């Protein structure tokens, strides 16, 4: 991919037309967009120019969604004994591709101009709040008996009145798609059991 800075300095005799250079700019803007609204608009513009297919645009939106949510979901899941895929499925269904909407719905609105780190913090807090609600609400406690099985867990939640029946058409499948986030990771307390002195990032590089 061409970065935004490089897109602006490509030589005018490269064979690129004005349309081509504008397409470079749109791609660069798409890769550096800070909001879901911008990404959707720029993704649509790329499709309109024949730069992306709808399926690739959707995949890119999913990558952006996961980049801001998967670690937050794993943190919340570890804290409350749930599967991260369950939390990701709920967030995906109820917020679309916009984690900021998810955060706002949980009382953590992301102000305009918020730094990336602060934005991630708000999103993480929203996942923690969702997990806390699922685990501590007394009426939902029977579902915890099957919390290790996302499909069974959602079925039980539906029986307990937590979700609408039509949501059951999507939630188990979304959890299945996000099951990679449930993969056991050997970094309890953020160390590698093979070498307790290694942090996860160092441990990954040591593999």
Briefly characterize the structure:
The protein has 207 residues and is mainly alpha-helical. The protein is built from ten helices and no strands.
Describe this structure in words.
- The chain is mainly α.
- It folds into two domains: 4-58, no CATH class; 65-182.
- Helix content is 60%, strand content 0%.
- Helix 4 (54-80) crosses helix 5 (84-95) and helix 4 packs across helix 7.
- 27% of the residues are buried.
Number of separate structural domains: 2
Give the beta-strand count: 0
N-to-C CA distance:
29 Å
Shape category: elongated
- What is the share of helical residues? 55-70%
Rg over CA atoms: 20 Å
Query: For the residues shown, what is the average pLDDT?
Result: 80
Helix and strand topology:
Layout (H helix, E strand, L loop, with lengths): L3 H6 L8 H15 L3 H13 L5 H27 L3 H12 L3 H7 L10 H21 L13 H10 L11 H7 L22 H7 L1
Helix pairs in contact: 2-3, 3-4, 4-5, 4-7, 5-6, 5-9, 6-7, 8-9
């Amino acid at each position: 991919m061409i970065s935004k800075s490089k897109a602006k300095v490509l030589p005018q005799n490269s064979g690129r037309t004005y349309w081509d250079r504008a397409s470079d700019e749109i791609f660069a803007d798409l890769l550096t967009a800070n909001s879901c609204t911008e990404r959707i608009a720029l993704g649509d513009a790329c499709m309109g120019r024949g730069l992306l297919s709808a399926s690739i645009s959707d995949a890119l939106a999913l990558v952006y969604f996961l980049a801001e949510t998967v670690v937050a979901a794993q943190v919340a899941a570890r804290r409350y004994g749930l599967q991260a895929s369950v939390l990701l499925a709920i967030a995906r269904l109820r917020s679309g591709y916009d984690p900021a909407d998810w955060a706002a719905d949980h009382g953590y609105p992301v102000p305009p101009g918020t730094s990336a780190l602060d934005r991630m913090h708000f999103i993480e807090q929203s996942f923690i709040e969702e997990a806390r609600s699922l685990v501590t609400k007394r009426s939902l406690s029977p579902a915890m008996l099957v919390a290790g099985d996302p499909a069974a867990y959602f079925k039980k939640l539906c029986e307990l009145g937590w979700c609408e029946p039509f949501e059951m058409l999507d939630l188990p499948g979304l959890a299945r798609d996000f099951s990679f986030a449930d993969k056991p990771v050997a970094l309890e307390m953020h160390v590698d059991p093979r070498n307790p002195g290694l942090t996860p990032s160092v441990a990954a590089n040591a593999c």
